[in-house]
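For reference, the entry.
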Amino acid sequence: MKRRRTALLSLAALLGAALTALPAQQAGADETEQVRNGTFDTTADPWWTDNVTAGLTDGRLCADVPGGTVNRWDSAVGQNDITLQKGTTYRFSFSASGLPEGHVVRAVVGLGAAPYDTWYEATPVLSPSGSYAYTFTAPVDSAQGQVAFQVGGSADPWRFCLDEVSLLGGVPPEVYEPDTGPRVRVNQVAYLPGGPKNATLVTDAAGKLPWRLRNAAGTTVAKGWSVPRGLDASSGQRVHSIDFGAFRKGGTGFTLVADGETSRPFDIGTAAYRRLRVDAAKYYYTQRSGIAIRDDLRPGYGRAAGHVGVAPNQGDASVPCRPGVCDYTLDVSGGWYDAGDHGKYVVNGGIAVWELMSTYERSLHTRTGHPAALGDGTLALPESGNRTPDILDEARWELDFLLRMQVPAGQPLAGMAHHKVHDEQWTGLPLLPDDDPQKRELHPPTTTATLNLAAAAAQAARLYKPYDKAFAAKALKAARTAWAAAVAHPKVYADPADATGGGAYNDDDATDEFYWAAAELYLTTGEKQYADFVAGSPVHTADVFVPYGFDWSRTAAAGRLDLALVPSKLPGRDKVRRSVVRGADTYLAALAAQPYGMPYAPDGNRYDWGSSHQVLNNAVVIATAYDLTGASKYRDGAVESMDYVLGRNALNISYVTGYGEVNSHRQHSRWYAHQLDPSLPDPPAGTLAGGPNSSIQDPFAQGRLQGCVGQFCYIDDIQSWSTNETAINWNAALARMASFVADQQ
C-alpha cells in the first residue's frame, strides 16, 4: 500500500483562489509544528487530494468520497514535504467527521516518496464529529515526510471533513501505564491436577503473607504462606512466590487471594491444553497462501485466495527475480504467509515446518506421545479424511512451497534455495492477501535458505514415507541436491540491507544450519557421509542451548534435539542425549531463579524479538530431557514454563489469543486487523504474540515504552510490529509445547 505523492490534485482549482504555503509555526519553546495550514481557515494550500471532490466548509476541509473504490488509498487527502527528526517524539492530532457515521479513515505519517514507508498510522472509526490524538517517535530523519488521510474502500459515497491537523514535534513521550489488573499473577488458563501450580504476587511486603485458593463457589479449598523473593530484575517489581501444587483436584473458575487481591480465574485440568494443541496447529490454515480459506472450516476467517494472479494480485505462479538476480521465473505459489505481512521466507519457513513436524515426530518416539491427537481429521483441513495425519497435511502446504524455491538445474547456483519472495515495496495495514497489488519478486539464493530446505525436506522424507512414498522420495532428492549445492557454495549470505517490502532475515554464519541439515539427512538415510559431517562439526560438542534459545538464526539445537530423540545408530549418541539434559538443567536453573517462573534469563535483561516463543523453545529442551530421562523435574519444569505465556507475567496478560481472561488479540497483521477495520477478524484462537522486546523498534512502541524494563517492553496494539506480531515459527513453538502438556494427562 503506497501513499500518494505530490501534485495529485491541487485544491486551488477547486477553491478558485491563489493559495500560499504557510511557514511552519512554533508551538512552544521546544515544540515545533510540522503541518502547514492545518486549520483551513481561509485556504487549503498546500494540501492535495486524490479521487475526491473537496472544498472549504465552515473552516474545515470537506471531501465528498466516491463509492465503489476497493482500497483505502484509492481516495485521499494529504500534505507532503513534512520534516521529521529521528528519535523525536511527535503528537499527531486532528479533528474529523464522517457522514454517514461508521466509516474508517487511515491517518498516516510516512515517507512521501518510494518506497513509501509508514512511520505511524491510526484508523479511527469516525462519528459525526470527533478529535483524535496519538504520540509516536520518528524512526528516521527525513524532509520528505507526508501526512495523509486515506478514505477509499467504501461501496457507498460518503462525506469526510477534516480540521485542526497537527504534527507537533518535541513533545514529551506519552506516559503509558498498562492496566496490569490484580497483583496476584497466575496462569489464567489451566494448571494440571498433578502438575506444578505456582503464582507470583506483586507486593512491597517484606515478610511472608497468607494466601487462599478459592473454588468457583468462593469456598477456600487450600491455604498457605507466600515466599518473599525481593526485587525481580525482569520486571523491576518486588514480588513473592506462591506454591499451591499440593492441591490436586480438578475444576473450573478457581481464584487465588493474597494481600487483599484476587487473581483472574483459572481451571485445574487438561481440557484447555487439548484445545490449545489443536488451535495452535489450526493457526496455519488461515496463514496459507494460494488457496481460498473456507469459512465452514474456520468460521469468521473465510477469505479469497491470495497471490494467485487474480487482479489486483500479480500472483506467485510466475515470479521474476529482483533485477540483476536471475533471468528466469519460478512458480512459488502456496506456502504460509510468514507473519503479519504477505512475504514468504525460506529460513523462517524451514525452522517453523521442522518444529511442526517435530511435534508429530515426538509423539512417535516418547512414552507420553499420542500420535492420534494430531491425526487425520483433528484439524478440520480441506485434506482431512485422506488417511494422513492432519498435522502432516498442514506441513505439506509449506514443504511444497519450499521445494518450489529451489534454483532449477542448468541455472547459476542450481540446487540452492532462493532466500525469500515478497512484495516489491512494503504494504500497509489492513490489506487482505487477495487485495495486494504489489509486484512479487524472488530474492537471491543463500546458503542458509538452502540448508533450511535440506533439513526440512530430509525430515519430511522419513515422516511422509508411510503416507506418500512418491513425495517422500521427491523430498529426499531435493534435500540431497540442496546439501550438495550448499557444500559447493558455503558462504552465500543474505544482504542485511535487503529489507524493502519484506524482512532481511540475514545470517552470516551457516555452521549451525550445516549441522542441522547433516543431522536430518543422517537420521533419514543412515549414511556415513552425513554421520561423519555431524561428528566433525564444531557445533556437535558446543553448548548450543543459549539463554535466548533456538530460532531461525540459531538452528543447531534443532539438529541436537532430533539426534537425541529420533532413534539412530549414531556413534556417541549417549553423549548427545546427555548434552540435551545438561541444557535442560541450565534452563531449569533459570526458571528457579525467575520469580515469574520462566526458563528465560537473557543477558542484561534484554528481551529479544519474539521472546514469548523463545521461552517456549527453552521449555522444549526441558520437555525433551523428560522424554529422554523420565525424571519428573523436567516434566514439571516444562509444564510450569507455560504459565508465563498464559498470564503469569508482569503484565498479567496471556500472550495467546482466546486463552485467558485478558489475552493478546491485536497482533500486527494485515488481515487479522479488526482493530483497524471492524469487518475483519482478530487473530484466531491459539495465536501467539511475539511478546516483550527490549529494542522496541517500531514507532508506536517507541512513543510509549521508552525506558521499559524487560517484561514491560510490550503493548497489545496492531501498530507495534516489534512487540506484537504473529509469526509461523512462534506458533510452532506454542503448538509443540501445548501438545507436550496435553500429553501429560
The longest strand covers residues 158-169. Residues 1-29 have pLDDT under 50 and may be disordered. DSSP finds 14 helices and 28 strands in the chain.
